[in-house]
Amino acid sequence: MEITEDLVAQAEELVLSGQYARGRALLDDHLGAHPDDARAWHRLAGALVGLGRSRDAVSAADRSISLNPDDPVAYRMRAIARLTLKDRARPHGDARPAAARDRGDAETLALLTWGVLMTDRVPDARHHARAPRRRFHGLFGGRRP
Predict the structure, then answer these.
(1) C-beta separation of 64 from 94 below 8 A
(2) pLDDT tens, residue by residue, 5-59
């Protein structure tokens, strides 16, 4: 198992360095031998997004989620893939379960915020974003310190 985990880690490094095709090739080989590796599937989703194959990335993330529904990274990868497809409402739907599983992940929180802004709740988001400013002006009577 250590060798296969090293392969997935190597593929991840390739993808993170922008070598999407090489990372994908390693992941394709690995998944041919280990089709139930949820981590490899969500790593493949990342490589596919980098290659501009977002629909395939959604499918890879779907497979990862079906194998391990508790993995926040798989939901985040599906949200990113859907965002690149300009599917405005659905990234928010994927970011929510990712955030519920990993509340401290900055990427997931950014996707969640983006999803709120891009759905029909934009006025609500603006209202909440302006709340600190309204409070500031209430404290200082509209004057800047």
Answers:
(1) no
(2) 688 999 999 998 999 999 999 999 999 999 999 999 999 999 999 999 999 999 9
Cα–Cα distance for residue pair 41/104, rounded to 1 Å: 23
CB 64 within 8 A of CB 53: no
Listed in sequence order, the residues at least 6 apart from 100 whose beta carbon sits closer than 8 Å to its beta carbon are: 72
Distances in Å between the Cα of 55 and the Cα atoms of 37, 52, 80 are 20, 9, 11
Residue boundaries of the structural domains of the chain = 2-140
**CATH code, 2-140:** 1.25.40.10
Report the distance separating Cα 35 and Cα 2, nearest Å.
16
Look up residue 58 and give its two tokens.
């959604």
